[in-house]
Specification:
Radius of gyration: 20 Å
CATH class of the largest domain: Alpha Beta
Structural class: alpha/beta
Oligomer: single chain
Shape: globular
Helix content: 40-55%
Number of strands: 14
Largest sheet: 5 strands, parallel
Number of domains: 2
Strand content: 15-25%
CATH superfamily of the largest domain: Response regulator
């Protein structure tokens, strides 16, 4: 790992949480590390929101176990993510790593947990390889993946008349896989892809040339295969250029915080897919109310909800096995798969043999300003896809853990 001032600062971000406590903590302390982007384009998706969601799960669980939550910023760089993960496991005895957005970082950390046999609940990355070709006995993927997003949004947009697409895509694993999977569903539904622009990630803020290419393509749908600040900037600039009057915009991965930042005037009419919405039912509203005691005035997204849900299920599995086995990742994950999930964020669900946590997915359209009746009332549900239909079939996962 290349050491520079930023790298040292990132590693130090985890240290203050530990330094004053390590000597006092008992050997039986179970440590959970939340590893995500806290300063870059994905900071408002996960960042401190997911850190606090994980802390909420720990506080609500009780269970008589001593649990400590650590946090660090991987800066969307695989080498930094790997360095922090190794330090946490080798020096600090971390039993579970949670979140890890940015697919390239997620896959790099996946190799570490495979080697070290520690539990890994990924809630922030989209790559379906985590439960496919790179699945491990100690990895679980929560919340969403590229297949689910493409299946829900891509197919529905074509059915609604959006039969020609142009993609603007972040040029790394996540964007590439999301474009690939969406292309599959668009073409299967009888649509076509008119073209695509790949842009460097991270660091791109000016999307004008890519949007101009999309407009000149004559396509009906602009597919944004990016996330976070990149999605927000793409939509803002598309509005400025008048492109949204000529093309429908499919935000292939967008979160409610992005909608809030854009405002309904700019975001209205966009389509997106999530596996969690704070205003879905009484249980999700109750979870959100508790979340807001830590993060006032903010509602959680599916990444934050996944951090809460996955951590709670991990703690239930450790309790069933015994706290002394918390660092045996394969054993804990096997127990997590054996137990049905159930909590206020996601409700009931199961975890498949390949490590994929199964829940329904929902295609939403963003409301107009006049349709929204109260704070954060942003989504109207278009289609609900059952859990057994929303995700890639198990027989197609490519995971070596799946028995023929």
């Amino acid at each position: 790992m290349t050491l520079n001032r930023r790298t040292l600062l990132a590693a130090a971000a985890a240290t203050p949480v530990l330094a004053g406590r390590r000597a006092r903590a008992q050997a039986s302390t179970i440590r959970i590390g939340v590893l995500n982007d806290q300063t870059g384009p994905y900071r408002d998706i996960g960042g401190q929101l997911t850190v606090n969601a994980v802390k909420q799960a720990v506080a609500e669980f009780g269970g008589g176990m001593q649990v400590e939550v650590l946090a660090a910023d991987h800066q969307n760089k695989p080498d930094i993510g790997v360095g922090i993960a190794r330090q946490w496991i080798d020096q600090d005895g971390v039993a579970l790593i949670v979140d890890v957005p940015t697919s390239s970082v997620a896959l790099a950390v996946n190799n570490v947990v495979r080697e070290k046999n520690r539990a890994y609940v990924n809630t922030g990355a989209a790559t379906s390889d985590l439960t496919g070709s790179q699945c491990t006995p100690s990895t679980i993927h929560w919340s969403y993946d590229t297949y689910m997003l493409a299946h829900s949004t891509g197919g529905a947009m074509v059915a609604a008349g959006g039969d020609s697409w142009y993609f603007v895509t972040a040029d790394y694993v996540f964007g590439q896989q999301l474009q690939r999977d969406t292309t599959k569903f668009v073409t299967q539904a009888g649509g076509k892809v008119a073209g695509a622009s790949l842009y460097p990630f991270p660091g791109t803020t000016d999307f004008s040339s890519f949007l101009l290419s999309a407009q000149n393509s004559g396509a009906k749908v602009l597919g944004l295969c990016n996330a976070g600040a990149d999605t927000v900037n793409s939509i803002k600039q598309a509005n400025e250029f008048g492109l949204t009057r000529k093309m429908k915009v499919a935000a292939m991965l967008m979160f409610i915080g992005d909608v809030h930042g854009l405002g309904l005037e700019a975001a209205q009419g966009l389509y997106l897919t999530e596996s969690f919405y704070w205003d879905m039912n009484d249980r999700t509203r109750a979870f959100t109310k508790r979340f807001q005691t830590r993060m006032p005035g903010i509602v959680p997204n599916m990444t934050n909800a996944g951090g809460y849900s996955g951590t709670l299920h991990f703690l239930k599995a450790v309790q069933a096995l015994g706290a002394g086995r918390a660092t045996d990742g394969a054993a804990v994950v096997a127990q997590m798969k054996a137990m049905p999930t159930d909590d206020d964020a996601y409700g009931p669900g199961i975890i498949r043999a390949d490590g994929l946590a199964l829940f329904p997915s929902y295609l939403f359209e963003i409301k107009t300003p006049t349709e929204s009746k109260y704070p954060w009332d942003y989504y109207k549900q278009i289609i609900a896809t059952p859990a057994d239909k929303a995700w890639k079939p198990l027989a197609e996962s490519g995971c070596a853990l799946v028995k023929a």
